[in-house]
Structure formats: C-alpha cells, structure tokens
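Would you mind giving me a polypeptide sequence along with per-residue structure tokens?
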Amino acid sequence: MRPFSLFTRLQRAAVPLLAVLALGVTTTAMAPVSEASAAAPRTVDRIKAAAPANPPAPVETEPLRVTPGEHCTPTPTGSRERRAGAVESCVTMRAAPKAPTGAQQDLAGAQSTAAADPVDSASCAITKPGTWTFNRFGYCVTGLTVLYVLKDSNGKEVGTGTLEVLTSALLPAADTTWNEHVTVTMTGATGAVTSLIAKFRSSCSAGCTATKNAPWYGGAMVKGDSRNGHVSYSSSPAPGTKTEFTTSYMLYVSYPGATITDPSASWSNPKEIRCDDDVRDATSTGTPSPGCVVPSIMPTVEMDGTAGAAAVGYQWAQQNLADGWGAAKPLTRAKSGISDRTSRTCGGSDPFQPMPNVVANDSCGTFPFAATHEGGTDGSLCSEIVLKDTGGGWAVQQLGNADPSRPCVRAHIPQAANQAAEAQLSDGFVDQRVLEAEQFLLKITDSTAVRQGACLQTLPTGSVRAGDGWIENTTQAVDEVNKTTTPNGPGTRAAKATACLGKNLDGGSDASGDITGWQDAQLYRDTYAPKAGLARCHLIPNVLGGKGQILDGGQDNLVPCWQSGMNTGTPSMRTFEQAAQKLVKEDTNFKATDALFYQVTPDYRDDTSTIPLGVTMTATVQRADGTSQPLFPEVYIPNTKGNTGTLNLGN
C-alpha cells in the first residue's frame, strides 16, 4: 500500500486529534497538515507548558545526625588547662539551626538575583545549618557545632570554645578523584578558653581511599579565626563494575599544647557515593570514562530542541499518555536488547509504515525508548503520531484511536531528528552516569543554549566583564579620605566587591596609589609598629582578576591592611583566595560551564571610617545543572597585625 493511501485511510477511520506544540509554551490550535485537511478536527489538545528551560537538578536533604551527650576526659597534670583550674575537658556536638547573619542574608539575596530563583531551592546554603544537602554530583553539610568546655572539680565551667564545621565536595562525572573542602571557624570563646587547636581527619570505607586526609596541620585558633583546606579521595572501579562507599570525619579539639589521641567529635555521610566504570553499552562508539555520583539522587537526562520533531513527539507522549514516562514515572535504562525492543515496537503485529510524502526521510521514533526496559511494547498497542513543523510551531496529529491509556507512541520523525534524539539520550546516560537498570527522569526543553552557572547568565548593572564572568566593585561616600592627616577632603571608600568567576580568568593588576585611608594607615603603623609592613589589600584578588591601578579602576578594589595579618598569614585573605584560585584553575571537577560566586565585604566601624576593621568573605560554587554549594562559608578576617589579634588597623 502506498504511504499516502495509508495516511488517507487512517484519517477516514477516526477523527484525528490536532494540536500545536511549541516547546515551553501553551499553544492554541493551528491548521492540520495539508494531507489531513479533509478531516476537520473535533478536539484540540491544550498542551501543558513545558518545564522551565534551566531548572535546577534534583536535590535532597537529610538532617545532620550527631553523637548525643557530653564526652569528657581528664586534663593532663601540669597542663595549661589544669593551671587554669580545669580538671576535665568536655565536648558536645550539636546541629541546631541558627538565624543567618546580615551578611549571610545578603549573600543569599545576591545569589537569588543572579540565579533568578531562590538560592535555597537548589543549594547547600549557609542559611540551612544542621543539614546535609545532596545532588547527583555533590554533597555538603553545614552547621555542625562542636562545644568545648573546661570544668573544675565541682563541675563548674571555667571556659568554653565553640567551633563550626562546613564541608563541601564536587563529584567527578568523568574521573574518580575529588576534593572535599573543609572550613572550621571558632565562633565563640569564654573564660579560660582563649584559643583552641582543631585537627580534622577524613576517611572512607572499602572501595575508596582517602589520599589526603588532613586539610591543614597545626595552628591555634582564636575567636573569629577560620581554618580552610581540602581532603582528597580516590576510587578505582574495574571496567564493568561499580563500588559504593561512605565518607567519615573526625575532629580533634584541644587546648594549645595539649596532646590528644581520641577524636572529640565524629560523624559520617548518611548517603553512599558510587564510583563506576559501567556506563558503556554494546552500541557505544567511544569509551566513557569512569566517574562518581550520589546514586540515591535520581539522574535527569535532558533532551533539547535540536532533536526537533523527536523532542516534540516525546514530550507529547509524556504529556498525553497516562503513564507519563520520564516525567510522572521514571524510565529504566537498558544497555542490551535495544534492537529487539525496536523491532517489537516498529514491527510487531502491525508494522510501522513510513510516510515519505508527509515526513521527509521518515523513520520510526519509539517512546518509551528502546534503550529502556519500558520500551519494546508491540507496535499495534501504541498511539501513532505525525509531526509537522508549521513555521510557528508543531502540528501533532494522532492517527487512529485517540486513547490516552495506550502505553507507548510510534512517531513519524525525520531520520536526522531521530538520530539526534538517540545521540542526546546516549550522551545523557554518560553525563548522568546512568547504569543498567537504573531509573532516570527525562526533561525535554526548547532551550538549545549551553547551560551555565547562575551568575554567568547575567551581567549586573555596574559590573564589568572579566574572563568568562564579571566583577563588580561598589563604593561608599566618606567626608574625608583620611581622618588623621591634612589636607583632606571628601571621597569614596571601597565597599562590597562581587565576582562571578568562570574557568577562564582575566589577569589582575598590582595594587598602588594613595587609596582612601592610606595615610591614616601609615600614621598608625609609624606610631604603634614602626617596622611592620602595610599593604593595599585587593578585595577581589589579583590572582582572580581583581584590579589595583588608578587607570583600570582598581582603587575601588583596595583597602589598607597589615601585610602580615589580613593580607597574608594563617588565616588571612590569602588563605581563602588560594582556595578559590585552586578550585577554578586546578580542580577538574569545576567545569567550564560552572561558576564561582565570590564576595568580599569590608567591615567599617562607622560612616566616617577609612580603614576596615576586617572583611567578610564568602564563595559559592554555582554548577551548570542549577545546583550550588559553598566553597567556604561566611568567614571573617580581622585587620590585625600578624597572628597577634591586636593592633587592629581599622578606624
């Protein structure tokens, strides 16, 4: 039978269902394809709006579970603790949420603006303490609090110290090594506890090796100090296999000079991590690399508008068939038997017959896919649709019985579109590391743009392009650019600095010039520490593209600071600048489409101040899949000399 005759006969047999599907838009009816014009439509589908073009990937949270109770050990005879009157030191873990600070709220607001979606909807947010957050390729925990208490022989407290812990990891889609970033901040100190030593160690279970289990070594912390570094892991699954494991953590807390052998606090990741070398199938043209995921987070495979009629047909199937495969119900990957399932659906008891006069290079598109265990239904049981690009949308015509309870669709699709959809599906299995018998969701959008981290999608007013991203420096007016010297006059001081950083950075420039407060800083130094060095601290550092010259506008990016203190040392701005630099330039799990949202805010005493008391720094990774997680949380770096905690330069 000629294809045209078949098409005509089917139209006479049943009234066709016509709809125009413009991906992502609820549409109105349009004229049917010309060959079907003799049969007027009786029902018009009101196609539901497609999913947003760039929604975040699925995220799950779990409460942070800590070891209950207080754990005490005697203080050593002759130790500093004993001399302070303490006979025992006690440690308590908790994960109690706290209200965000103003700076944290400011960061969340800035990220929300950049992402055009509330930051907490898809992130391990610093405003969600006491929570583990997971996405397919990352995990983090915030708000773990460790309370260290010294007690005398009567059980009375003689001093306390409080530490807060954050860890965050990006998992590799095409590798089996990764880093987990760790930040510990001393947020409180009372009485005899003026400083603490915090030693962090990580480990992982069978199938994984902690190749670097200490993020830092040594160094006492005082209130307000933070320690930042990373631990590293590796896994080596054999070809065709997978391995699953968990990560665990220990924190040793002690008074400076004390020897501690047992961990003060310990906790574990509540979800398993999977590394595998098992994505490939018999039809793979290449050899997908091994990689790692959080397997309990269901993967989402994406298909975009470049698949043309195939994408339209498969979205129609999701929205009109009762099962809603890939949306209402997950699909299940099948690595073998693809040809057999294709034959059953495109052949079977009622073989698919191409319509080249209607669809150029017509081919049989099947949904559910033959590469899933849900595919392979006999073609006689499927709805059959014809798709036509009308120039303003797609006409979707159903042939035969318009029964929404049918389990599958056969679509008349140009061969090129069919192949494009198959390639996107195969690439999606690799990108999301979908294994045999693993369930996944299918997201079909009209977007063909490359997905990027949220802040890379915008260019805020007042910002300037910098590498793949942008930098914005703001200022505040001051009545006098120096408070202690003459002559002087009005000017501006550096205020909040924000950078959206991609993989490619612009070169920065060295600091120079008679910046606001510079003469005040020189006079203070000459009076209290004549031999100490001063610096013009970059808010956005030189190594990340921050400027510092007059001609390039860099004066708005500089504040006076101690060279050894806020600028360099441990901890200092440089500690966290290096963490950001290493992530962007060296971490292969930070992709070209990811972004680092980096922000530094000077803390001034009052409206007349020309030199800050310190700065608050934050950095958050914004991934191309819409998720985000902190590289380091809000940390405060005081503008004090060296590691003395004294001689604050701020005025």
